[in-house]
Amino acid sequence: MRIDPSIAALRGNRAPQRQAQAAMKVACDDWRAEKGVAQALAEFENFGTGAALEDCPLLEDIFTGQGAAEQLMSALVSHFCAALSGNWLGHPPFRNGYDGRASTILLGKTGRAQMLLQAREPGTFEYPCATFSDALRYDATLAGSASARILRIHGPRELVSFSEEPITLRAGVRLAFDCSSEMLIAETVETRLVTLRLLQVGAPPQPGREYCRETGRLLHQSSGSLATSRKEMMVTLLGRMECTKAPPVLSRLARDEHDESLRWQAVRECLALDTAQGFTLLCQIARDMEDGLSDPAGALRAQLLETHPQLRELETQ
């Protein structure tokens, strides 16, 4: 494998890399210090505490008006291009990711708010599933063009119907979404689509939901909280480890926790590890009409009884 001499040299002397990163930090600080940027970021902090967008006039202008979003990103590009021209191994100090279809840069995160820059590659994309989360979202399209749809869900949580609104995305388009019931899908991207995005999650966030677009059925539910997601992973790990001491703990989680996504995962793993204890727990939840999990628990109970009639002996326990 060929290694460029300038990269190989870093093995023996890391000072150039440290200098490059110092230059990236200076570029970031200079961008944040610009008058318009500093004011917008101050409002972004306020937005992160739960303030409405209309209470943040500069931020509102960026995501609903014309020109302000472009100026914000033009300043960012100007500072970092100048820094990278002399430090071409430098990495801008932002979290970023690329999945083959889209690249995303996290420009800022504070409290309940995030600001991201996303570029979606040209191509045609299919969306067999639709995902909804507890967040408000504002998009400012900066460049590119795409044929897209806004999906809106209607009906009960377990089985929904969809309405669709076709739209064209291009530079200057400004959109706002309630992500709990609306989703934007870019089906055909003609030229690379670049979007500045602002998010504000709920407090506390309700579970995220994934539906089959063909049937409208709920396929998956996950916690909207990162801390709760970690607990879900721990619960799942107990199940995969076939931990025989876990069912009583899982049963308490399912009864005492407030997050429905975590509770549901605990019920599922309890069922897998100890059928009797898990099914008794499931029946208790299904019978409690004030429990938010009563409907899905009842549906799962009916499904299990149809497949395994012998479980009826446990229903009265």
Can you put this structure into words, describing what you see?
This protein has 317 residues and is an alpha+beta fold. It is 41% helix and 29% strand. It has ten helices and eleven strands. The strands form two sheets. Strands 1, 2, 3, 4, 6, 7, 8 and 9 form an eight-stranded antiparallel β-sheet that branches. β1 and β2 form a beta hairpin. α8 packs antiparallel against α9. It is globular and about 75 Å long. The model has no long low-confidence stretch (mean pLDDT 92).
CATH class of the largest domain: Mainly Beta
Shape: globular
Helix-strand makeup class: alpha+beta
Question: What is the assigned CATH homologous superfamily of the largest domain?
Answer: Jelly Rolls
In the predicted model, the low-confidence regions spanning at least 5 consecutive residues are none
Number of strands: 11
Largest sheet: 8 strands, antiparallel
User: What is the count of DSSP helices, taking H or I runs of 4+ residues?
Assistant: 10
Report the portion of residues in β strands: 25-35%
Q: In which range does the helix fraction lie? A: 40-55%
Q: Could you tell me the radius of gyration in angstroms?
A: 24 Å
- CATH architecture designation of the largest domain: Sandwich
Overall number of domains: 3
Q: Within the CATH hierarchy, at the fold level, what is the topology of the largest domain?
A: Jelly Rolls
* H and E string: HHHHHEEEEEEEEEEEHHHHH
- Mean pLDDT figure: 92
**Distance separating the two termini:** 66 Å
